[in-house]
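Workshop exercise sheet. Pairs work together: one partner reads the sequence aloud, the other fills in the structure field after running the prediction. Swap roles for the next sheet.
Pair: D.N. / O.F.
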Amino acid sequence: MPTPSPPSLPSPRSNPYARLFALPGTRAFTAWNLLARLPMGMFGVGAVLMISAERGSYALAGAVTATGLAATALAGPWTARLVDRHGQARVTVPAAALASLGSLSLVLCVHFDAPAWTLFAAYAATATTPNTGGMSRARWAHLLRTDPAALHTANAFEQAADEACFMLGPVLATFLCTSFFPEAGTLAAALMFLTGAVLFAAQKRTEPPISAAPLQRRSPLRGNRGLAAILVVLVCTGALFGSLEVVTIGFADAQGHRAAAGAVLALQAAGSCAAGLLYGLTRPSSPAAARFPRCLAAMAALALLPLLTTAAGGGLPFLAVALLLAGMATAPTMVTGMNLVQGLTPPGSLNEGMTLAVTGLLTGIAAGSAAGGWAVEHLGTWGYAVPAGAAAAALLTATAGRRALAGRPVLTVRPAA
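Structure field:
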């Protein structure tokens, strides 16, 4: 069956983002995907606040969230392979339902004071969480497969959407947990996620078709040194995100402003969101493989700001400013990294390739969450050394693997005329 021609975009002179959403069906799948994605910024903070409030231990809270993320990282590529094989609609709904049951189990275990090991088991049951952000990017990659410049803008929008979700999610989770009851954040997140995932899956008009070519039985990582290299970098980047979240919650609590933790984390995401939208308006002239280390260098440099601020005795307002500035390097780094992943992944395995990228991030976030929980209880104001070290590791890893990243064809964007 021949692949249908991609829809035509409006004139290049129009706003790049307006051009994207002029395509039929893009507004609907984006809206429901955002509803499903917003809880991704709520689950971690909601679980940390719920467990630490009920059990009195940040180390336990960090370890439980790390376990859930690690389980998702292991199961995610298998779920994505099912999506590539059977389509987004057929896999998303049952996978989201199972993951939501896992979140409900965690709430019940915490509420009824079940043994600590049940918390780990319940959160691990959320491993079937489908990669809704990756599926949205796969839709854009299909719709814009003949227009690399528009795809760059779409990837920038998706990254900004991720940051917006992680900007609003912690604030909403913190408000619910501190204003109502500790389990409120997780319960609301599970309901929103399931609703959004079901309605996103129903938007079949823009769903990428199942590849007519026989699907690979092996992972796209096999024999792909460039993709392997970028995944290692994403593990380090995820460790930055995971540790930053837990250390910031612990620091705000120590300052007597526990309820402000979500707002402070939101500022970091706000800086990244704004930078991502601006980055989407540019037309980079150099390949993504060349831009990626430069983006990581900026991220590593700015990741030092929270550490320097807290080590110098700065309070929560100064930390908020430092996190806002630090966040400005995140979106350009992630947009460039996702461009690389899309270019290095075989066409018939795009959902799996995008999920492998998220798997790398989740693996790092899991390790970072656990390390951040330990840092809160043992390093005090020096806890931000953990995210700063993770950012430096990401830069060093990319520098060491730079030749591998450039060794395969990657998606590049034509310079503006």
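Discussion prompt: Residues 408-417 have pLDDT under 50 and may be disordered. What would you look at next?
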